[in-house]
Amino acid sequence: MIPLLRSKQSSSNVLFPEGRERRTPSSGPDASCRRLPGPLYWGLLLGLFLLDQGTKTLILRQGENFPLSLLPGFLNLVSVQNTGIIFGLFAGQNWLWIGIGSFILLAGLWASRSVDWSSRETNVIAALLTAGAAGNISDRIAHGFVVDFIDVYVGSWHWPSFNVADSCLCIASLWMIFRFALARAR
């Protein structure tokens, strides 16, 4: 089910024209619309945030014992202190990224007031986005950098190192792009 964004003036949503959204046999078009995140959101958010912070803590405690090959020729554990953003761009601007990340996180929370939280998919995507943003912002505040430790490579080609929070953000973003493209194709 695609997350349903409801207009205050219409019972239709942004993704589907009038009458094509899923409705339950209740007393009106918005009767099945939940206004607050469900237990799935809160449980997944907490679990992913703790997984992210726990793995980063383990990496920091290992000190200089890296790289550690998990799947030779494909996957290493490393310890990278990233003060930039994606791919290490704009390094050294930690406080700027704390501000921008916090603004985006708060804007997302504010915008979530108009989201229909009755869909599992909505709860999962929102939990992935929130956990990812909160995990990396927490790193910047606590350490002054983001801890990246997953190194995927083939031969001499290495994808920039990343972490659980980055994975959450990428999965949610790709999921939304796929779903919006699918909805447009209909």
UniProtKB/TrEMBL annotation:
Pfam families: Peptidase_A8. This is Lipoprotein signal peptidase. Its main location: membrane. The keyword Ribosomal protein does not apply. The gene is lspA. It is an enzyme of class 3 (hydrolase). It is found in: Cell membrane. GO terms for biological process: proteolysis. GO terms for molecular function: aspartic-type endopeptidase activity. This protein specifically catalyzes the removal of signal peptides from prolipoproteins. It catalyses: Release of signal peptides from bacterial membrane prolipoproteins. Hydrolyzes -Xaa-Yaa-Zaa-|-(S,diacylglyceryl)Cys-, in which Xaa is hydrophobic (preferably Leu), and Yaa (Ala or Ser) and Zaa (Gly or Ala) have small, neutral side chains. InterPro entries: Peptidase_A8 (IPR001872). It comes from the Bacteria. It comes from Methylacidimicrobium cyclopophantes. Residues 1-31 are annotated as: Disordered. The active site is at 148, 166. Coiled coil: none annotated. One of its GO terms (cellular component) is plasma membrane. The chain crosses the membrane at residues 66-89, 95-112, 124-142, 162-182. Belongs to the peptidase A8 family. Pathway: Protein modification; lipoprotein biosynthesis (signal peptide cleavage). Its EC number is 3.4.23.36. It is a multi-pass membrane protein. Keywords: Aspartyl protease, Cell membrane, Hydrolase, Membrane, Protease, Transmembrane, Transmembrane helix.
